[in-house]
Amino acid sequence: MRLIFFSDPVHPHLPDTAFQTEVAAAKALDLAFDVISYESLIAHKNDSFETLPVLRKNEICILRGWMLTPAQYSSLFTALERHQRILVNTPDAYRHCHYLPENYDIIQNHTAFTVFLPVDSVGFHIDQVFDTVRTFGSAPIVLKDYVKSQKHEWLTACFIPNASDNTNVQQVVNRFLELQGSDLNEGLCFRAFLDFEQVGHHAQSGVPLMREFRQFYFDGQLIARFPYWDQGSYGSDVPDPSLFLSVATRIKSRFFSMDIARLKSGHWKIIELGDGQVTGLPENAHRLDFFKALKDRT
Ligand SMILES: Nc1ncnc2c1ncn2[C@@H]1O[C@H](COP(=O)(O)OP(=O)(O)O)[C@@H](O)[C@H]1O
Ligand SMILES: [Mg+2]
What we know:
The chain is of the alpha+beta class.
């Protein structure tokens, strides 16, 4: 197994400092890695690939980097393939975990009921939003796009206490669209609000922190789990490792993350999936254990 890190924009031969603790763990485990330029990738310039050391045969590679659009991931996949580096997840697998509507069929019995509204270049009329959320009646809902929310703007751009309050729905949707700007991912997801246990409030944004864990799976097996938040009082309660294993084996990706949280009723629910290569590690995550788990499986 070989790792790929994105470079520091100022020092293109060095990994970005955001990944320095991961790079240190990779070095400690003697894992080979390459450094490529994210800026070149998104500008469609492939110069950072030309300087990659030549490999004699194809090697499975795992990216540790920023979130990419499926189109960017696909061009990265192809460019690396030309250099004998085969990313662990195909472009289809990346898309499958990156976009909620792509994996919703598989996780729907274990996650919040969700309705989707695609947003194309023409945009949409607010009446389409009202029609879309009508199914929730006057229940509370949560808004995100196909990938990300504005969770730190919980009350103004994420949480809608009453789905039938058109004025508030319009305000929250507009604020969300304003904050996402050109980073909006494909469309809107309206999700039933679930009554999760809280472990505190975020010190900076004040958002409620749910008892949420980030789990990583490789070839259908749980390989790592961390408290999602670095703040809050989690206590010693952790989810059973066998939870959602049968769902995990149906996810069409070799390496992905699954965020889960516990309801006040005690049941666990899936919040979202992500491609394992671009899912961040919480600060509390033990980097050495994480990369050792990957090394043992590849
Ligand atoms: N259905 C839901 N009910 C209640 N809270 C939710 C729900 N979905 C998400 N959340 C809360 O909002 C946060 C952000 O949602 P998430 O889907 O993970 O978006 P992001 O990709 O921005 O992290 C979660 O960490 C959780 O605290
Ligand atoms: Mg999340």
